[in-house]
Design brief:
Helices cover 25% and strands 22% of the residues. It contains 9 helices and 20 strands. Helix 7 crosses helix 8.
Length: 364
């Protein structure tokens, strides 16, 4: 844990910490429970002890703003076809060796945080650009909880939804506050073994499973799950089957599951990319274990990118490269063929944003 004085000018009082008997302060935001002396940062880089309290050092700062399709988060059952204003900050509380946003998530410097936006400025920008939601993404938003919650509150007042893309590595008390303001979340379930979490991410599996159960059963947040399949690390039939059985039993069959392809990056550049065959194998296992909505990502394969009615098996939402190609749901989300409800958050008409990615500058 080092000290980075360049972050000090962006500091904002942090919540969820307490003082220890030895004079250190423990951050209680996530299961890492970093114990800090004055001037030290937690492992996430962005929560630090300054002026004898925990401070968030990146409040109001971003690595950039972009309008994306909501399907890119990926969220397939939440306002399909609509644009989402996406942004992140810096730092992360995991240490994934395969991180594909490592330039942001592993940064402890502010040179990557060239853009600024207040919570109200973000909500206003979403309205002006026609974005139906704002996504906290690129790096894990739980570490900038105060900024994310303030922004989500401003968005809610403006009639804009809030979306969290997270690994779900957060402690129970702050989790309650964080997800109270999130309308949807995609949680990375990075594997289904403690070995993988400890060896590859420097964290633990149990808190993530606890977060998934809590979101599904204790919150109003729409939930989807993503698992990045890495060859020979988390892609065995037995592990995929165990994970899918757990999801079906503990979360229910209607939580969408996205299997995405790994591309060599960061500290795992020696690994081969995930094959389409592996993704299709995982897709088959998930469907065989009773999951109704299973998708493949980071590859172009419209058949497993589309949504099928779990009753009559006819396609109700067609997708190809983030573009909606078919829509067979009634205004209340029922299948037009058989009347079965499709799980999700739908509006009367889908959006038509398509695959566009539009960088944005926000003026406060």
């Amino acid at each position: 844990m080092g000290h980075n004085s360049t972050l000090a000018k962006n500091q904002h009082p942090g919540r969820y910490w307490h003082r220890l008997h030895d004079g250190r302060i423990q951050c209680d935001l996530c299961p890492r429970e970093c114990r800090l002396k004055e001037g030290q940062q937690g492992m996430c880089f962005v929560r630090a002890r300054h002026n004898d309290q925990i401070q968030l050092m990146t409040y109001g700062r971003s690595s950039g703003f972009c309008i994306d399709p909501i399907e890119k988060k990926p969220l397939y059952h939440f306002l399909p076809g609509t644009p989402v204003l996406s942004f992140g900050t810096a730092g992360c509380n995991l240490a994934c060796k395969f991180c594909q946003n490592w330039g942001i998530s592993k940064s402890s410097e502010t040179h990557a945080l060239a853009d600024q936006a207040s919570p109200q400025g973000l909500a206003q920008a979403a309205l002006e650009t026609g974005s139906r939601s704002v996504a906290f993404t690129y790096n894990d938003p739980v570490i900038f909880l105060e900024y994310a919650v303030d922004t989500a509150m401003a968005c809610r007042e403006a009639g804009v939804k809030s979306v969290a893309v997270s690994a779900g590595y957060i402690s129970p008390e702050p989790r309650g506050e964080f997800f109270r303001y999130m309308d949807a979340a995609n949680i990375d379930l990075k594997a289904f073994t403690e070995r993988f979490y400890r060896k590859i991410t420097g964290s633990h599996l149990a808190p993530v499973l606890d977060t998934l159960q809590w979101i599904k059963h204790e919150s109003d947040t729409w939930l989807e799950i993503t698992t990045l399949l890495i060859p020979d690390e988390n892609d065995s039939n037995s592990e995929i089957e165990a994970m899918c059985q757990w999801i079906a039993n503990e979360l229910g069959p209607n939580v969408p599951l996205h299997f995405t392809a790994f591309h060599p990056d960061y500290k795992m550049g020696h690994k081969p990319a995930t094959s389409l065959q592996t993704l299709l194998r995982a897709h088959h296992i998930a469907k065989s274990n009773g999951l109704n909505y299973v998708y493949t990502g980071n590859v172009r394969h419209p058949e497993t990118d589309s949504t099928y009615c779990h009753n009559c098996n006819k396609p109700v939402i067609g997708r190809d490269n983030y573009q909606l190609t078919d829509w067979q749901l009634n205004s209340n989300g029922d299948c037009r063929y058989c009347g079965t409800q499709c799980a999700g958050v739908f509006e009367e008409q889908p959006g038509n944003w398509g695959p566009k990615r539009v960088p944005l500058r926000i003026e406060n």
